Amino acid sequence: MNQDAERLSRSASQARTRERLLEAASSLFAEKGFDGTSVEEIARRAGFTSGALYSNFKSKEELFLTLLTDRRVTRAQRRQSVIDDIGFDGRSREEALTELFRRAADRRSRFPTLQAEFWLFALRHPEAHAATAAQWRAQRDATSRYLERTQPGVDASRRDDVATAAVAIFQGLIHARRLDPKSVPDELFAQVIAWLFDGASH
Question: What is the pTM of this model?
Answer without folding.
Answer: 0.75
